[in-house]
Amino acid sequence: MNTVARPRGPLPPRVYWVRRLALLAVVLLVGWLMLRWIDGGGSGATPPDETPAGATQSEQPTPTQTKHRDSQRGHDKSRTAQVKDVAENFQRPHEECDLTQVSVVPSVTDPAYAGEPVQMTLRVSSASSSACSLSLDGDHLLVSISEGHDVVWDSTHCTDDVPVVDLALQPHWSTLVDFTWSGLHSGRQCTPDSTPADPGSYTVQAAVLEGEPSQADFDLVAPPKPPADKHDGKGKSDSSDQPSNGQPTDGSTPSNDQPTDEPTPSDGATESQT
To answer: CA angle 3-7-12, nearest 5°?
Structure first.
């Protein structure tokens, strides 16, 4: 202890104290450099709260940009609110559907015009607890359209109009199938020149063979009339005021003694050019 507090040697004690302070300064400097190197201070990185000398502050958004940004955010939020995440693993069907458990619910796209094709949607689902396959065609899908008690269109007479599609029905899920009614009476031959259905109230029924039918009511309305052409007569002249073939309209005839500017062909120039 006395040797540390009171250094002994051939030199004066002041020399030994200066050496100790210098060694302590070197140790502290080396320790500080090591800490800077570990923290990344020696890599030249700029601290987060400091601004580099060459950096410039970003421009403030204009009111138009702010309004557009707020409108876009509101639109994105409204779209996000309508989206629901559904975690579902669809199964691969290994068997055909039991037709008694298959449901077909029709719906009609408004407006439906008389004399024009009518777009419909068939919502097909199965009450089975497992996935199953279903083949829709004219032999398995039945669709009829009636007005009151009168059948207007029957798919059994128009099998070519029935969509042909293979479906993989999943439990608790529905599959949409597009269907188009020609808007004509089917009759017995289902010819393309059949009588169009008149405007009125109709009912469409749909089902698979051996299944329970579902129905939907809809109205056929008269198609809108094209706008009438309106002519105000401006820019058109009366044909009665215009001379025909260069003849005056006052009843007088041109004099034969008036000279004409058109040259008269000579006797040697009567052949037509070929």
So the answer is: 160
